[in-house]
């Protein structure tokens, strides 16, 4: 039977996430004390998989998890999914909010209820605890009269606590994205994939631009980009990037190789099936109105001309610099041109365009730019 490690004890959001992922019939759920322990249980083979919260709708990234994924190359992301996150204010028995002097919970939960706490419990001291369910459990064990916990409904039921208030999170539709980690990479099949990676950029002007342009060049859509300190010196960063595609897809593999060559280093955190929410995000073309499709086409036509304008400016700038440095470049030799044209034709095919028509247009434009 599969064993799934999660942040325990029973009754946490991570517990619910593990149940949503596999259910108790299909897996044994193994509660861990910390997120590091979840990771360790997978590395040491105690668990086949582990569940980690990675991103919240209100608070953004769960930074310790981003750090953990980077620090443990032995594990890879195998899946992702969203869990609705509703917070409850719990106490050992019914009491008024004015009696509450201390609120215990996981730091993420306390942050997700910041406005509620400021408005309804301004007198309370907030005490961070390793997990929401542990906060609920401590109420039962310590039973202090002025104590409350923020935790899921599952914790109220499991530990027999009174519900003082419900849905106290700052956004009604709060949710957290969880990832499943394991030791085996996910093979590419017929699915919609995402790849997560961390790139350590070289500290120079345009460093981020040169990373992003590789994706744009290959037409790869990014779903998230985020920077974290590299923890070497102030000002050096690691960029966490999520992209649409599997690391084995040729265009993704090409960009990853380029980044590996041109950056300080990259870590591939995993290629995994994209959650259904992401898959459903793109409206089907047939669902869009004819009018909005036509206006999208008009916009692309304008962007095409704007891009040509940008290219013109670059060509002129190159010309000026060559004049200044007295190093006017000879036209590319036929072989170099052939390589360039072949790449353009390949890109055309990848995009479902006629390579002949694209080559013709490209040559026409090249002739025009050469004359400038
Ligand atoms: O303490 C819990 O219940 C957890 O599962 C941890 C955690 C988190 O770290 O983000 C999980 C989901 C919620 O966003 C709040 C807390």
Automatic annotation (TrEMBL):
Keywords: Amino-acid biosynthesis, Aromatic amino acid biosynthesis, Lyase, Phenylalanine biosynthesis. Its EC number is 4.2.1.51. InterPro entries: ACT-like_dom_sf, ACT_dom, Chorismate_II_sf, CM_dom_sf, CM_II_prokaryot, Preph_deHydtase, Preph_deHydtase_CS. Residues 196-273 form the ACT domain. It comes from the Bacteria. Pathway: Amino-acid biosynthesis; L-phenylalanine biosynthesis; phenylpyruvate from prephenate: step 1/1. Residues 284-372 form the Chorismate mutase domain. GO terms for molecular function: chorismate mutase activity; prephenate dehydratase activity. GO terms for biological process: chorismate metabolic process; L-phenylalanine biosynthetic process. It catalyses: prephenate + H(+) = 3-phenylpyruvate + CO2 + H2O. Pfam families: ACT (PF01842), CM_2 (PF01817), PDT (PF00800). This is Prephenate dehydratase. The lineage of its organism: Bacteria, Bacillati, Bacillota, Clostridia, Eubacteriales.
């Amino acid at each position: 039977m599969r064993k799934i490690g999660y942040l325990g004890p029973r009754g946490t959001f991570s517990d619910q996430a593990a149940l949503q992922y596999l259910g108790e019939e299909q897996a044994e759920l193994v509660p861990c004390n910390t997120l590091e322990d979840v990771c360790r249980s997978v590395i040491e083979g105690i668990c086949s998989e582990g569940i980690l919260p990675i991103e919240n709708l209100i608070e953004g990234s769960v930074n310790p998890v981003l750090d953990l994924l980077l620090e443990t190359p032995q594990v890879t992301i195998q899946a992702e999914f969203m869990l609705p996150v509703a917070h409850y204010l719990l106490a050992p028995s019914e009491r008024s909010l004015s009696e509450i002097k201390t609120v215990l919970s996981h730091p993420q939960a306390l942050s997700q209820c910041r406005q509620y706490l400021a408005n309804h419990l301004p007198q309370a001291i907030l005490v961070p605890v390793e997990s929401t369910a542990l906060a609920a459990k401590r109420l039962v064990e310590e039973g202090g009269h002025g104590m409350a916990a923020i935790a899921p409904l599952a914790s109220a039921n499991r530990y027999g606590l009174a519900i003082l208030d419900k849905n106290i999170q700052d956004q009604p539709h709060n949710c957290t994205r969880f990832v499943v980690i394991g030791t085996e990479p996910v093979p590419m099949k017929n699915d919609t994939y995402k790849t997560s990676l961390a790139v350590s950029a070289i500290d120079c002007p345009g460093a981020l631009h040169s990373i992003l342009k590789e994706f744009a060049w290959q037409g790869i859509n990014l779903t998230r980009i985020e920077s974290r300190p590299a923890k070497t010196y102030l000002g050096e960063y690691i960029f966490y990037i999520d992209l649409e595609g599997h690391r084995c897809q040729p265009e993704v593999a090409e960009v990853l190789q380029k980044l590996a060559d041109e950056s300080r280093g990259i870590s591939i955190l995993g290629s995994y099936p994209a959650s259904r929410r992401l898959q459903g995000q793109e409206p089907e073309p047939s669902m869009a109105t004819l009018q909005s499709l036509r206006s999208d086409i008009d916009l692309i036509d304008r962007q095409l001309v704007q891009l040509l304008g940008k290219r013109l400016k670059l060509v002129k700038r190159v010309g000026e610099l060559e004049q200044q440095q007295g190093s006017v470049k000879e036209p590319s030799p036929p072989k170099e041109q052939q390589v360039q044209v072949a790449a353009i034709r390949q890109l055309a095919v990848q995009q479902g365009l006629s390579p002949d028509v694209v080559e013709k247009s490209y040559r026409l434009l090249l002739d025009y730019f050469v004359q400038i």
